[in-house]
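Here is an idea for our session: we take a single protein and study its fold together. Once you have written the record down, we can walk along the chain together.
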Amino acid sequence: MHQDYDIAAIMGGLYGDGIVALRGAFPRELVESLHRQCLALYEEAARIPGGAVPRGPNRWYVAVQPERVEGFVEIASHPWFVAVCEAVLGPGYKVVEFGFDIPFPGAADQPWHRDFPADADNAFGRRLSSLAFNLTTIDTRPEHGPLEIAPGTQWDEIRGAKAEMFPSRRQWDRYRSLAEQKLPQRGDISARTGLTIHRGTANVSDEPRPMFIIGVVADDVTDADGHQLQVTSGFLERIPPVVRNHLFYRLTNTVGPLEQRHMIEGLLDGTYE
């Protein structure tokens, strides 16, 4: 129930630092299953042209159909997930993206970036209209190449930056000075605004660091040319209304790997430290 969570703290965290988290939200057994599924889905995607999109050296992103992952419904129906979405995005929020990021050993530091450009509502209206929920499948250590985030920078003015997403190197010292390294453990879930300046760091371990991602937006900013889930009618019939009513989707008769669409060129152009 919403009363179990401090809505003011959720709002303050996302509008302030740009990130909030709930520790121990899910049982480790569920997360261990997600880990096995993630590795299998990556192996499948890697064998198919366009099945995985690069996000830098030895780092890949794979979008998947929600029904292919046992555990999606548990995540998208968790009371904290629902409470955060409703508090920030409104009661008509829509899940538009589901997938995972997987930095393997040898993944490099990414350039500091936003996930998308700020629009007028963000920059001038100070409105957050989208969130990314992250769920790790391992107990993250510094050598795994965890996420670094520069708190409060979702309001930075970076117009004129490459793609309106990649601040110039002249600004990197500031972001390094602000940076907080996030070390989530199995069972934790976080929500962040993709506008806060952040980067994935170098994975110097000997194992991958999978992270499931659920993208959610306010109902008035859904965009079928941007992110949209693919689901079957049978899946919609099986899932509870708290999940079904909040999916932004197109129907498909096919269940299987997807051809990836969302290349971020700035993560591939060699602007690494």
User: Anything to note?
Assistant: The helical segments are 7-15, 28-46, 72-76, 79-89, 120-123, 172-178, 233-238, 241-244.
